[in-house]
Amino acid sequence: MSRTDLDDLTLEATASSPAVEARAAQGLLRIRGEAYPENAFAFFSPVLAWTEAFLAKGPAPLRVELELTYLNTSSIKSMMDLMDLLQEAFDGGRDVGLAWFYDPENDRALDLAEEFREDLTLPFDIVPRAAEGLP
Amino acid sequence: MNDLHDIRRTLASNGILMCFNGPFRHGLIEELGRAVRRHLECEAVSKPALADVFTVFIEAAQNVANYANRPCWDEPTRARVQNGILVIGRQDDRYVIRCGNLIHPEDGQALLARLDELATLDRAALKARFKAQVHAAPTGDGAGLGLIRMARTASGPLAYAVVPFDGDLHFFSLTVTL
How many Cβ pairs within 8 Å bridge chains A and B? Predict the structure, then answer.
């Protein structure tokens, strides 16, 4: 099975869960919005499964873009699981990178991003971007 | 029952801006969360302060909802433990979030032990504990992380108590001052 056989994943944002766009052909995973779903594990399971499948299918680079205005603790756990997958791939020589967008007026969001980054060595950009159009 | 006006006066004299008393279900937490945000935005609260209130609000409310969702309850007990109270107030220029709900006495004791232990940790130790537990928690289980996060968000120690309510259940209350 070739890499392009991996289905894209699209989830619409709700009040408490982010929009997800996973594009196999572009090697792009984008998660954007609020993250305090009732069951973060259930919500993020397909995202983690997609990422694992993408990384298993071939050598193509993967770029992950996160723009999360709020994460509850269960979602933080799920993001940590996602980053562990990416770090493992990076350690194995894969071209993977992460960009974390945050609202520059909210330094709590910056603190959280930096806390994630300090345990990782993969390319991890923390980028200020004013939140707009989020639910 | 007190006159509604008395209840309102009691809330106001305690500096309470918002109060919810009832069943904590996910859909309702979303709605309340939106209301909390909108209220604070109207008050022109800074974004970090708003983020702190929202963080504690969500963790506290989801703790009650998750506790009620445990499979161990019979339905009448579930309905009782799902009923919580959450208030957001101002005291001495600080936001204070207080929440309370009924819990099983054994869970109450475990919770007190956990909170007593967290109270001994400084900020660096709380951060280390949070990170260790994020890694150690089985995927899908955020149990205990919410308390650590609230302790990290607070400006001072958490205040908490467990008091007997009736023969079966105790009442747990938590106060987080930002």
Answer: 68
Q: What is the pTM of this model?
A: 0.90
Distance from CA of B149 to the nearest CA of A (A): 8
Average pLDDT score over chain B: 91
Residues of chain A positioned with their CB less than 8 A from the CB of B34: 15
Most confident by average pLDDT, A2-11, A83-92, B65-74: A83-92
Mean pLDDT estimate for chain A: 91
**Secondary structure of residue A54 in the 3-state scheme:** helix
Total residues found in chain A within this entry: 135
> Is-contact B98 B116, C-beta < 8 A?
no
> Measured between CB atoms, does A111 come within 8 Å of chain B?
no
Q: Residue A24, Cβ neighbours under 10 Å: how many?
A: 22
Instruction: Inspect the interface and report whether the beta carbons of A77 and B142 lie closer than 8 Å.
Output: yes
Tell me, yes or no, if A52 comes closer than 8 A to chain B by beta carbon.
no
Tokens of B13: 């004299």
- Which residues in A lie closer than 8 A to residue B145 (C-beta atoms)? 73-74, 76-77
Report, as an integer, the average pLDDT of B100-111. Answer: 93
pLDDT in tens, B111-150: 999 999 999 999 999 999 999 998 887 655 555 899 999 9
Q: Is A113 on the interface with B (CB under 8 A)?
A: no
Cα–Cα distance measured from residue B58 to residue B153, given in angstroms and rounded to the nearest whole number:
12
Residues in CB range of B39: below 8 A, 6 or more apart: B17, B18
Reported ipTM: the value is 0.88
DSSP for B75-108?
HHHHHHHHEEEEEEEEETTEEEEEEEEEE-HHHH
Residue A135 has pLDDT above 50, yes or no: no
User: B131 and A119 in contact by Cβ < 8 A?
Assistant: yes
